[in-house]
From TrEMBL:
<dbReference type="GO" id="GO:0030552">
    <property type="term" value="F:cAMP binding"/>
</dbReference>
<feature type="domain" description="Cyclic nucleotide-binding">
    <location>
        <begin position="193"/>
        <end position="312"/>
    </location>
</feature>
<dbReference type="GO" id="GO:0004862">
    <property type="term" value="F:cAMP-dependent protein kinase inhibitor activity"/>
</dbReference>
<dbReference type="InterPro" id="IPR018490">
    <property type="entry name" value="cNMP-bd_dom_sf"/>
</dbReference>
<protein>
    <recommendedName>
        <fullName>Cyclic nucleotide-binding domain-containing protein</fullName>
    </recommendedName>
</protein>
<dbReference type="GO" id="GO:0034236">
    <property type="term" value="F:protein kinase A catalytic subunit binding"/>
</dbReference>
<dbReference type="Pfam" id="PF00027">
    <property type="entry name" value="cNMP_binding"/>
</dbReference>
<dbReference type="GO" id="GO:0005952">
    <property type="term" value="C:cAMP-dependent protein kinase complex"/>
</dbReference>
<feature type="domain" description="Cyclic nucleotide-binding">
    <location>
        <begin position="75"/>
        <end position="190"/>
    </location>
</feature>
<dbReference type="InterPro" id="IPR014710">
    <property type="entry name" value="RmlC-like_jellyroll"/>
</dbReference>
<dbReference type="InterPro" id="IPR018488">
    <property type="entry name" value="cNMP-bd_CS"/>
</dbReference>
<dbReference type="InterPro" id="IPR000595">
    <property type="entry name" value="cNMP-bd_dom"/>
</dbReference>
<dbReference type="InterPro" id="IPR050503">
    <property type="entry name" value="cAMP-dep_PK_reg_su-like"/>
</dbReference>
<dbReference type="GO" id="GO:0005829">
    <property type="term" value="C:cytosol"/>
</dbReference>
Length: 425
């Protein structure tokens, strides 16, 4: 990792603003990094003490420490800084002993909890269904829908939690979430499939969606992953790739009566689609509960709304699910179509390069040789040839990066008859 990237990482993980003025050589020292981690930990341990101070009496540094802590919690990602600051002003510190019930099933939902230290378990009808650890949020869904508590939550260890009361939650967070849901409904209405859906049905769909951020080049899912979700692109774009197996054969004589046949099996990664905002992907494998056969990669920083497959089948009819799959944005080509496209691409790269060089009567077999081997009339083309060599090298490197599997096998035969050779083509 370069010193510059280390500096960037330290800026993100530590609230001390002076880091941006510290030289790179110091930022790269292991002992300095350890000192930074210790300072980070000290700041985190200050948070319960900060909550003991009325928010009007907190210093700017204390407010920033608390806001940075909340910003790094998954629940608050994407919320405006002013909302996060207001939430910090309203939090109440609360302690729970090991085995104590933090939330009781059937009780009225009056607050949301953030686990600061310790862990808890979620129990429904005597069965543990989930664990809650540091940074997890508990009880927010009951506040969203004004429902009674649907599960017991019991502290596994002595636990410190930060409580946000219902009135504070509604004034600081719920209005923002409602606005986000309205934006989501507007996004869904742009998709042709959902234009005819009622607002009530779209509202149901928004309650089932979870938002997730993907950085540029992040792999969203890979081939052979379980097909568990449908993805709606809210911001950014996603590239969809397919895998294409190609077989190559070459033969040449090694003696008067013996030939060598080289069989090369390669598998290429080829981009078949780019899904942008107001479109969805991941539907192809959902119908038959297949494993993923494609690969999805974030083309840019991307925000996706994710619908779990179980929720899809529980809340929508078979005809609606069939429409979602059939009207999907990504159509998987047949294997033959993929192979034809890949072979055409490979051939076009070589053909176009050779055609240019043939037209100029350039000895492209020995482009890396001395200039004196070229016709003096075309020495003026040297700058072009230098650029051409660079482009060709980049093209080869691009193809290499897209080879995900390669296997070579040599077969010795005494004699290659025409009919026998046809079987290898």
């Amino acid at each position: 990792m370069s010193p510059l990237s280390q500096q960037s990482q330290l800026k993100q993980t530590n609230s001390i603003q002076q880091f941006e003025f510290i030289p790179d050589w110091l930022l790269s020292r292991p002992d300095f990094k350890e000192a930074c981690k210790a300072m980070e930990q000290a700041e985190k341990e200050r948070i319960p003490l900060i909550l003991d101070i009325h928010h009007l009496n907190r210093s700017e540094e204390d407010k920033k420490i608390l806001s940075d802590y909340l910003t790094n919690i998954k629940f608050f990602i994407g919320l405006p800084p002013a909302v996060i600051m207001e939430t910090g002003n309203r939090l109440i510190k609360e302690y729970f002993s090991q085995g104590e019930k933090m939330i009781i099933k059937g009780a009225e939902a009056d607050s949301m909890l953030i686990v600061y230290k310790g862990s808890a378990e979620v129990i429904i009808d005597g069965v543990r269904v989930a664990y809650k650890n540091e940074g997890d949020v508990i009880g927010e869904l009951s506040l969203d829908y004004r429902m009674l508590r649907s599960a017991d939550v019991i502290a596994i260890t002595n636990l410190i939690a930060f409580k946000l009361m219902r009135d504070d939650y509604e004034s600081a967070i719920l209005n923002i979430k409602r606005k986000e849901k309205q934006k989501t409904i507007e996004l869904l209405k742009i998709i042709p499939l959902f234009k005819v859906w009622s607002n009530m049905k779209l509202l149901l769909l928004t309650t089932l969606l979870n938002s997730r951020h993907f950085k540029k080049d992040a792999v969203i899912y890979e081939r052979h992953d379980p097909s568990t979700c449908l993805y709606f692109v809210q911001e950014g774009s996603v590239d969809i790739y397919a895998y294409v197996p190609i077989e190559h054969y070459n033969k040449w004589p090694t003696s008067v009566s013996q030939w060598l046949i080289r069989q090369v099996n390669r598998e290429y990664l080829i981009k078949i689609a780019t899904v942008t905002h107001h479109q969805y992907f991941g539907e192809y494998e959902l119908k038959d509960a297949k494993l993923r056969v494609m690969k999805a990669v974030a083309h840019s920083n991307t925000v996706c709304l994710i619908l779990n497959k179980d929720h899809l089948y529980e809340n929508f009819s078979s005809s609606e699910i069939s429409d979602i799959i059939q009207q999907g944005m990504v159509k998987m080509p047949s294997l033959q179509e993929l192979q034809d496209k890949m072979m055409k691409d490979l051939k076009s790269r070589t053909t176009s390069e050779n055609a240019l060089l043939d037209a100029l009567k350039v000895n492209f077999i020995n482009l890396e040789g001395r200039d004196s081997i070229l016709d003096p009339k075309i020495k003026r083309l040297n700058p072009w040839l230098t650029s051409f060599r660079k482009r060709r090298t980049e093209s080869v490197e691009f193809l290499k990066k897209n080879i995900v599997f390669e296997n070579t096998k040599n077969i010795k035969v005494k004699k290659v008859k025409k009919k026998s050779w046809e079987t290898f083509k």
